[in-house]
Amino acid sequence: MASTRDLRRRIRSVKSTSQITKAMQMVAASKMRKAQQAALAGRPYAEMLNTVLAEVTGNLGDFHHPLLEEHHTGRRAVILITTDRGLCGALNGNMLRHAAELDRDTTAFICAGRKGAQFVARTKRQLAAEFTYKDTPKFDEARAITKFAMDLFTRGEVDDVSVLFTSFVSTLNQKPELRPLLPIGELQAVEAGLAVPETEAEMVRGATEYLFEPSADQVLGALLPHYANYRVYQMLLEAKASEHSARMVAMKNATDNAQQLVKDLTLEYNKIRQATITKELLEIATAQMAVG
Known about the structure:
Layout: H1 4-59, E1 76-81, H2 91-100, E2 107-112, H3 114-122, E3 126-131, H4 139-154, E4 160-170, E5 173-182, E6 190-191, E7 194-195, H5 198-207, H6 216-291
Parallel strand pairs: 1-2, 1-4, 2-3
Antiparallel strand pairs: 4-5, 6-7
């Protein structure tokens, strides 16, 4: 049985830990709101861009672009978007389990976030490049990542490029997803977690006519790289929203567990203290009866 001194020491230690986790919870909650708003605000633009390109590319016949070509090298690249820090529950673990299922011999990883780079180094997989991005991702950061991936693809070093990231669903739910990026194949009217009803998508596809200057080929030639850049940017926003949400929930659970542990230790401390006082009173009463 632990002594009262040990219990007091443990109670102080757990209370100190609880204060730290509570502060981290509040910081994560503040960042979470901003990240969620940024992720949700970017979805309509991504959806509209996807819808426009789906309509235009569906009506073009002999349009060729380096990002549309197919290669046959037997290798692939994966942009792995993880966090720089831990303490966010099972977020990184769920993501890296999906990464571990990819063929190590034919897959090169482009890591955004230290946790992904550490996983690739630890498992002795091929690391093509490592990038960092801030708590509020910038479009330039996404463009640098996408440019490296597009260079690999256009040089014919890989057959395709995919992105493994955590899609933000809600504060309590984040889902790892592997989405294709290159080559840009048939564009769908679904992007960035938003689904357009089938009847509405058909109405949009058939009811809109687009006019281009100087030409559709030149406009699409400029839009396709921007489309790839923005997809990666939106995925960075989704990953940050997922990270801060998962960290806030993890720190809240840690704080609640610490407070419950303090209650249990305090109850045990009081029981031992009461038993000690009762024992001392019995010894005093016995001594008085012996003296007479």
